[in-house]
Amino acid sequence: MGITSRRHFLLWMAGSTGALALSSLAGCNNKIDQNSVKQIQNAAFSFNPINGPIPLEPLGLKESQQQEKYRNYKVVDDLILPEGYEYQVIAAWGDKVGDSRFGYNNDYLSFIPNGDDEGYLSVNFEYISAVPWVQTYEQVIGKSLPFAELQAVLKDKSSGENEVNAYALPDDEPIKAKIEEICAEALIDQGLGIISIRKTASGKWERTNSSSDRRISGISGLKDGRYLKATGPAVEIFQKKEGQGYIDNLGDRIIGSFGNCAGGTTPWGTVLSAEENFQIQVPETVYADGTSLDPSAKPFGFNKKSISGQGNIFGLAGNKYGWIVEVDPANPNDYGTKHTWLGRYRHEAVGVRVEAGKPLAFYSGCDRKGGHIYKFISKDTVRDPKDKSNSQLLSQGMLYVAKFAADGTGRWIPLKSDTEIEPDLPSNIVGNLIRLPKGPLINSDKQREKQALSNSSEKLPETSKGTDLLVTRDEQITKYKQIFKTLGDLYTGTPSEKQGAILVDAHYAASAVGGTCTARPEDTEIAPNGDLFITFTSGSSGEDGGPDARIFKGPSSETPYEYGWVMRLKEDSNDLVANTFRWEIVATGGEPNDGGMGFANPDNLLIDRQGNVWMVTDISTGKLNNAVKSRTSNRGEPKTVSGVFGNNSIWYIPISGEGALKPLLFGIGPMECEITGPCFTPQEDTMFVSVQHPGEINGIRNNQASETREYAIYTTTGQEFVQTRTVPIGSNWPSKKSDFPPRPAVVAIGKLS
């Protein structure tokens, strides 16, 4: 049963009218004087804002008051909520679900009602955090795994690498059985799950453990026959008997789902689960015919901080991961369908727009540095938005990638064979890098031409194995366009096989036709009026590329800009099948004195019935609460200061009214966690959220350990002062008992009963 806790919770205005006027803070804790706030009286979730770690403009404090109130700050290992609210743990890692268990790092949530105050809660399980997972596995799950033995073997390898191609090991090799055991358990803790819940007469939520409760894990189908299915053109690729690369000989049957991050919910009651960072477990890039690299391209790796290549030992084909999975929670025999017309890339979410008499429109983003925004349009139209046969519409259609223009306009480019090749120039990209599909090597002359595309001073990362090109100079794009004219030139096979290969390689294909490189798009949510809201988490660059510097700029046009944005996209004429759109940035992360709105790295969104936006943040765990003693680098340049923003948090952004587009802090998460997947019940009197990876860096908080750190903080007007902050080391959430293991969990938030 759930654990109930009361904490001060931020006023997250759930209405689109009303004003906020704050005059003072009630000390240096997490509470704001209730009398200083005008609440939204007609909202089920009216509340008073809580105090975060830095001054915010809506609080209305004078400069001297800001320095006084924020000079000391205490971080708490708990989910901090506004006065008058409480949370209840619904399920946590290790709890029983059907014939399996509740997985690790719960993410996207979807509540599908099947009666008054009862229904199915669909939960994604994204990945395992190696430090706390290894440290607490035996204590939580009740059995041991050979972690120490395996670490010792890998450490003794003469190569000095903590990796091994387990797939190629002989069956009688002792280490192989140990790797398989650990990988199986790690993949069981990923995927998605369905749990049945209801609200009791006392106002608490409880699990009912119905026959529909089940898990779809990373190894579903491996031994139990519960394969996932697939639709769309990529099925032809899966069914190949031979090809350029690796074929698993399972045809259209798919083993498992993992990397399940955000998602979406359809009007007909199914849930869409997005496979995101699948490249950690299996090879990502593919050959020109859409077939996978050999499993050896992503060997099993194990060290103190990570466990990767979990698909290696099972011979999983990389091209079968990175899709959108549809599941009907009410059907206990449904173990998921991957719809390949929605494209294969690092999916983060699905925005669903359904109107009777029109095709379906599904929006999604690829969460990587330089990832794109996509729209799928079905071939046929919707008759009844609530008819479950609408799922069949996902089997035929077209996938488009967004092309943003700096003037606030944009267009959709179809990912099909006759679309012209027109990549962006590296000079327009933060980091000056764009990755493109290599295409088929037709003859030696063509091979020499393609070799000339590579910068002799640059090397392909080992994980790519030469199946994509790293382009760093504008003249290389000119050469690329001389070799390849249309998208079909980059892929091989029959026309339908080429379309399948394009969808399998969607990210690279989208780069080839000029899809805008963006700033790690995380969520795509449709507002009641049809507007699409998109979160872009980080404007930095990396080995995958970076965002278009003409689009993704800080408040003073700075690039790279780390703290992220929320964008609103409007289809022209508000028509979901429009080929053009307009866009605007409605919220920018960063500190108020620099033009930011007080949050950093926006992630999942939730839009209430009034059209207002609720948002959670995704500051990388390794940056949370890092001390900031100086605001400049050794070279005198401004530096990224993610540590000042404290723990990851929940925000509310009213879209209209006097306080429009002024984010307000709603909640603060436990130590080293990320809050994800917020969703409401239909009445909007309960909010479900996932608390993911508490204690991800330091694991168990022992003996209530904490540190005192110093931070150079700015007032909202730019005056610097020193804050002393107490920071717990590790986590004991949700038990909050000293030395107890941290466990990812799903909670229900509501007003005190």
UniProtKB/TrEMBL annotation:
The lineage of its organism: Bacteria, Bacillati, Cyanobacteriota, Cyanophyceae, Nostocales. Residues 1-21 form the signal peptide. The keyword Signal applies. It comes from the Bacteria. The keyword Lyase does not apply. Pfam families: PhoX. This is Phosphatase. Keywords: Signal. It comes from Mastigocoleus testarum BC008. Residues 440-466 are annotated as: Disordered.
